[in-house]
Write a structure and sequence with these properties.
This protein is of the alpha/beta class. It has nine helices and seven strands. The longest helix has 26 residues.
Length: 248
């Protein structure tokens, strides 16, 4: 049987690309989604049609109880977990600091930061050799915005991803002796639908000339990096932040 993988926010974009690629490499994939069951179910059906094994599960990763219920379902379905990709994320409309209020900060950090903490905690409880598990791997989705700061656009999102960088390094050290590797991928300007939710669907084309490779990236290119960090080929990597940003 293939390794058991949970990908949060996997119905579209980078999460969906990661799920498709993981299935081709023999993983059994739980596709988590929040508000779009149709996309998640279509992805699951596509994976099954290709001979893979997948199941969709609705949960809001920002809700601690919802996350607990999702992991309980995973236990019932597959009896445990071998790998976690904390992909679920969101951003709000582009703006400057003066327009960022507490409610917006709460929303951005709840999904991008709290959700990764909640899911990683559940995963560690199942993977840790100190708790009877067999070990495993966690990959967090950060962003190159954590280094660049996203001035005038997404200061809050960049700060949230900076928190993910710190979380990745700290958790990696905390569980290294318990058979768990924890790394992060930091995508740059990737051609997905997230830019539309920020108010600029054409952002990739605008920003591409500032990227050393002179183009935006694809979700599939990010997925390749995620799958490498999950694999035994990255067996000596933990606490790493892998930039997939075209040189930015």
């Amino acid at each position: 049987m293939g390794k058991r993988l949970l990908i949060t926010g996997a119905g579209r974009g980078i999460g969906a690309a990661t799920a498709r690629l993981a299935a081709t490499r023999g993983y059994r994939v739980m596709v988590n989604y929040h508000r779009d069951p149709r996309s998640a179910e279509q992805l699951v059906q596509a994976i099954r049609a290709g001979g893979g094994e997948a199941v969709a599960w609705q949960a809001d990763v920002a809700d601690e109880r919802s996350v607990g219920a999702m992991f309980a379902e995973l236990d019932r379905h597959w009896g445990g977990l071998d790998a976690l990709v904390n992909n679920a994320g969101m951003l709000e409309q582009q703006c400057r600091l003066g327009q960022i209020d507490g409610a917006r900060l709460q929303r951005v950090f709840a999904t991008n930061v709290f959700g990764s903490f909640f899911c990683a905690r559940q995963a560690v409880q199942r993977m840790s050799t100190a708790l009877g598990g067999d070990g495993g791997a966690i990959v967090n989705l950060s962003s190159i915005a954590a280094s660049l700061g996203a001035p005038g656009e997404y200061l809050d999102y960049a700060a949230a991803k900076g928190a993910i960088d710190s979380f990745t390094r700290g958790l990696a050290k905390e569980v290294a002796a318990e058979g768990i590797r924890v790394n992060a991928v930091r995508p740059g300007v990737i051609d997905t639908g997230i830019h539309a939710s920020g108010g600029e669907p054409g952002r990739v084309a605008r920003v591409a000339p500032s990227v050393p490779l002179q183009r935006g990236g694809t979700a599939e290119e990010v997925a390749q990096a995620v799958l490498w960090l999950l694999s035994d080929e990255a067996s000596y990597c933990t606490g790493a932040l892998l930039d997939v940003s075209g040189g930015r």
